[in-house]
Amino acid sequence: MIRNSKIFDSRLIEHFRLRAFRKATAGIDFLAALMAKDLEVRLATIDRYFTCAIDLHGHTGLAANAMAHSGKVAKIKRIETSAEFLTQHYPSVICPREKLSLNPQQADLIVSLLSLHMTNDILSVLVQIKNGLKPDGLFLSVMCGNGTLGELRECLLQAENELYGGVHPRVFPFADIRDAGTLLQQAGFAIPVTDIENIIVRYNTAFDLIADLRAMGIQNTLLARSRQPVSRRFFIRVAEIYAQHFSDPDGRIRATFSFIWMSGWTPHINQQKPMKPGTAQMSFAKILSPIKREK
User: Fold this and answer.
1) In what order do the strands lie in the sheet with 133-144?
2) Residue 136, SS3?
3) How far is CA 252 from CA 208, 215, 230, 246, in A?
4) Spatial CA neighbour of 135 closest among 271, 288, 291, 16
5) What is the mean pLDDT of the chain?
6) Between residues 279 and 215, which one has the greater pLDDT?
7) What is the pTM of this model?
């Protein structure tokens, strides 16, 4: 789904993220930490040394640290929505999530870690990122994709319909991998590449999953969300449905997180040309398989 209208309450997103950041406990950023490790691995495969890199709205600083540990970057700058997120000694800029403070051709690497899926106009942000990159600069990003929290979405909708006779959106409408590739092309990136990493996290109950999401700052920020409070009975019913439909033989439940990795280069006259369709020797689908995590 390519967005062309406002669907998120941006102020509420920042409120939830800041609250989660202030109350963060050790290990609660395990998904972001996993993506940061993946980022470092991906940078290691690129035959390039970057002179100036930007960690764009990464929230945790994990992306900046991964770039520093990779040995592939000379200078790193962080761009965040609030100064409170800036707990490390990197040069920094504060700017809104969708109006980036990027100078033309400022960097040769921009990284976005788990942020793009919370923007109303992803294409506009991608265009700003491309304009902030030097020729033959690299954009590397990961965002939550279609299928993320699909089990929870189904349980929320069923419980709400049973108890209240109607439903409201409660989980983000995540993009799919085809949308991601199309957006990169529309923004003007060359050699766009996308792939998916599926991670299954297991919990004792739906209450534990919801508590983790809240601690991560992942809550309902949709403009079309219901403003009516729900009862405890609602969440009890959600947990019952979850256990009935998405539990393993040992009784623990599954929560799926689908991460879409995106990369694209700003055009350059000496840039390599993409391969012709059908000439690849192996697909990502044959390489990647779901990863299970215990929580």
Assistant:
1) 92-94, 73-80, 50-56, 107-113, 133-144, 253-265, 190-203, 291-294
2) strand
3) 11, 20, 25, 8
4) 271
5) 91
6) 215
7) 0.89
